[in-house]
Design brief:
The protein is α/β, with parallel strands linked by helices. The chain is 23% helix and 22% strand. It has 7 helices and 12 strands. A 5-stranded parallel sheet has the order 3-2-6-1-7, with helices on both faces. The chain has a 5-stranded mixed sheet with strand order 8-9-12-10-11, sandwiched between helices. The chain is elongated.
């Protein structure tokens, strides 16, 4: 039996319109689709009627399958003759473990192709109209995982500051440690930031604040994953967005304005 191909496909930030044509075509023809939990139902609905959809959704401290078993699943299905789409939110190679899956596939002699997607950072920033680089504010962008091991031991002194933008993935649960670490490594407490929840989706929220107020910002607005933290002067240029965070008691009526002294930048 001829071995199938594993396609590591980026589904983008959630909106089907933001996928590549290549990604859409592969989803429509794949016999097996192994997908993350963040892949929207609209995208999964593009699969052909007889395709097998296999969820390997991951949450903090709780995984449907460990990563090595996901790798083995992809290889097993391909060696059974199926073309397999491994569908990931964002881009497969930006905190998506696509590199690990590709390495195991190659080692097993299984053909593999990587199809890039719009990353969560690019998609969320565009939806919130935050320019990650700006001639007047930033010429460097860094992507960091907020749940990385040894967070307190790492040197973050060069990641954020004047002329730089720092984008933190998976940082909601560790927001207090992130703020503490950045300030300990020299970043000023009043550096502006934005938190984007459900970026590029209809339910997107954007809240703004200052670095010192990040833990309170996450707590007071009950920010939940998926969310990105964008730190740097580019966020101070953020226009009032129709989905900027509303006070929960006044949802859809009044944009809550919190003074900068409380950790938020006002307008």
């Amino acid at each position: 039996m001829e071995t199938g191909t594993i396609y590591l496909v980026g589904a983008g930030p959630g909106d089907p319109d933001l996928m590549t044509l290549r990604a859409a075509r592969l989803i429509e023809r794949a016999e097996v689709v192994v997908h993350d939990g963040l892949v929207s139902s609209d995208i999964l609905a593009m699969a052909r009627p007889d395709a097998r959809l296999i969820s390997v959704a991951k949450q903090r401290a709780r995984h449907t399958l460990p990563q090595d078993q996901i790798n083995a699943l992809l290889i097993r299905e391909a060696k059974a003759g199926c073309d397999v789409v491994r569908l990931k939110g964002g881009d497969p190679l930006i905190f998506g473990r696509g590199g690990e899956e590709a390495e195991d596939a190659r080692a097993a002699g299984v053909p593999v192709e990587i199809v890039p997607g719009i990353s969560a950072a690019n998609g969320a920033a565009a939806a919130a109209q935050i320019a990650l680089t700006h001639r007047d504010a930033s010429s460097i962008v860094s992507f960091v995982a907020g749940q990385c091991k040894g967070l307190s031991d790492q040197d973050w002194s060069g990641l954020a500051g004047k002329g730089r933008t720092l984008v933190i993935y998976m940082g909601v649960k560790t927001a207090p440690q992130i703020a503490e670490k950045l300030m300990a490594d020299g970043l000023a407490p009043d550096v502006p930031l934005a938190v984007i929840e459900n970026g590029a989706r209809p339910e997107m929220w954007v809240v703004r604040g200052l670095l010192a107020g990040l833990p309170d910002l996450v707590r007071d607005h009950a920010i939940k994953s998926p969310a990105l933290i964008v730190i740097g002067d580019v966020t101070a240029r953020l226009p009032r967005h129709p989905n900027e965070r509303w006070d929960r008691s006044e949802l859809g009526t009044i944009l809550k304005q919190i003074p900068a002294s409380a950790g938020m930048t006002g307008e």
